[in-house]
Amino acid sequence: LPDQRFTMTIDGVAVPGSEELAVTDPSTGDLFVRVPDCTRDELDRAVDAARRALPGWKATSYRSRQESLGRIAAVLEKHGDEIASLIVKEQGKPFPAAQGEIRSGLRWSRGIAALELPVRVAEDTPERRVEVHRVPIGVVGAIAPWNYPIVQACWKILPAILAGNTVVLKPSPYTPVATLRLGELLRDALPPGVLNVISGSDRLGPWMTEHPGIDKISFTGSTATGRLVMRSAAATLKRLTLELGGNDAAIVLADADIEKAVEGLTWGAMRNAGQICSATKRIYVHDSIYDRFSEAFARRVASVRFDRPDAGDAEVGPVQNETQFDRVHAILADSRSEGHVFLLGEAASGFDSGYLIRPVIIDNPPDDSRIVVEEQFGPVVPLLRFSEVGEVIDRTNATQYGLGVSIWSADLDRGRELGMAIECGTVWINETQYVSPDFPFGGHKQSGMGAENGIEGLLAYTETQTLVLRRG
Ligand code: NAD
After folding, report:
1. 47-80, pLDDT tens digit by residue?
2. Which atom of ligand 1 is nearest to the CA of 222?
3. Phi and psi at residue 417, in whole multiples of 5°?
4. 282 pLDDT higher than 70
5. What would the pLDDT profile of 150-169 be if each residue is shown by its tens digit?
6. Ligand 1 centre and the CA of 436: distance in Å?
7. Catalytic residue, candidates 277, 375, 424, 452
8. Distance between CA 37 and CA 379 in Å, rounded?
9. pLDDT at position 351, please?
């Protein structure tokens, strides 16, 4: 595989690129493969191709664009295992989890294709008829992170293309391979220039956000980078969708089904080694059940198989890159130096293989500790005691983030009532991380701007165009 050449897709053809970028296998820390490091000239060619394809693509019927999403689904279905094996090598998740990522892309291809963009008639009188149409924005620059490369790409390219935009897609420099391969496989599914896929190092994102030929940026990544994207996009007033970081809380009320909460939150915190924007990153448990919950939670988390993705029964792999590995260890070092109690993992949190980190649970650290305040983005989570519901809502909201929260209770009405008091984009009651092409997902506060998915996400790839038709 290190000899396999992955190419960028610009104007429907392969572009091997004139410079190279190394991609690391996170399960070993060794070189996986080299891919093109897009130059400024190559970016210009991609943007130019997208601009030239725009008038033709905009003019196609909505119905035919829905069919093009069907062709994307067919490619994902036919080549799913090949793409999944590339995700394993570059991202580090075990093969069944990578297959889950492909299934999710498929579900999105079909679900987004089923959305409609109706014309709204705002006035219909003998004097005039007013129609509000939705038209494409233009060329979309899609910038994705490294935790779910194919899911994140699908969340952006599917609604963008369906709404009649053309796209320049840039995966993370850490995980460009599966996305480049998807671009190669889609060359025959879409007219040239409608979807361009480029890979590059840290210089490429800023070139895109300042590029005068790009009309909208759809960005998923950290809050810190989101601020830079917004600043850079100001110069050309680009439209923006920003999906940023989170510090999602779980609130386990006294009447919760402990067994179900333990199971749900084990995966909420540990799935993909905690590298999910909406991973459960702090768990508040009512005083009356804290001891029972923490004991059962530590036992369940300890039973999850963390290993190299090629170890047959691995359920969770390493974190994706060295910077993230160091970041998680810095937070753990802070907990150690502050004297926090480790319910699980203190002895075993060292370097195993590549960037593998074994799970850690910290017992009731202070609210202002790094492990509570920061987005850890790793398989480490604090449990926190609470006694009053009003108090836990305040503690949940005391953050710059506002992505998601889960509430665990036998009483759904109570869950709904508390959920409405929380400042975040999604509240889950008795589960977590359930997302769908049918409803929006996005962050309040500094977790983002706008939303993806659902009709709301589709509308974010359009402008309104109001037609005022004076009669008589
Ligand atoms: P990151 O911000 O480092 O990078 C994200 C992308 O932005 C990459 O493609 C990167 O190359 C590019 N980039 C970097 N600097 C840029 C710049 N100055 N201008 C334009 N683009 C630039 O994020 P990451 O480390 O890849 O991802 C992890 C973060 O993403 C976490 O904070 C996580 O919570 C967040 N995330 C959010 C969601 C969501 O939907 N809200 C989903 C997944 C991940």
Report:
1. 999 999 999 999 999 999 999 999 999 999 999 9
2. 32
3. -60, -45
4. yes
5. 999 999 999 999 999 999 99
6. 21
7. 277
8. 31
9. 53
Q: Is 221 in the pocket of ligand 1 (CB under 6 A)?
A: yes
Q: Which residues fall within 8 angstroms of residue 292, CB to CB, at 6 or more apart?
A: 258
172 touches ligand 1 (CB under 6 Å): yes
Residue showing tokens 């290190």: 2
* Residue whose entry in the numeric block shows the structure tokens 């993230």: 324
Is 428 touching ligand 1 by the criterion CB < 6 Å?
A: no
pLDDT confidence of 2, banded at 50, 70, 90? low
Residue 277 annotated as catalytic: yes
CA dist 154 and 426 (Å) reads 20
pLDDT at 328 over 50: yes
Residue 408 tokens, joined: 């665990």
- For 269-282, letters b (16+ CB in 10 Å) and e give bbbbbbbbbbbbbb
DSSP 193-254: TSEEE----TTHHHHHHH-TT--EEEEES-HHHHHHHHHHHGGGT-EEEEE----EEEEE-T
* Residue 14 parent element (H or E): strand 13-15
Beta-carbon contacts of residue 297 (< 8 Å; ≥ 6 apart):
262, 265, 266, 283, 361, 383
Best residue for ligand 1 mutational test, from 90, 143, 323 (most atoms within 8 Å of Cβ): 143
Q: Which residues pair with 140 in a beta bridge?
A: 167, 216
